Amino acid sequence: MMAKLKLDLHDIYNKGGMIDKELNRIVEEAIERKVELVEIIPGKGSGQLKKKVLRFLNQSHIKKLYHRVEKDDKNFGRIFIHFRF
Question: CATH code for 4-82?
Answer without folding.
Answer: 3.30.1370.110
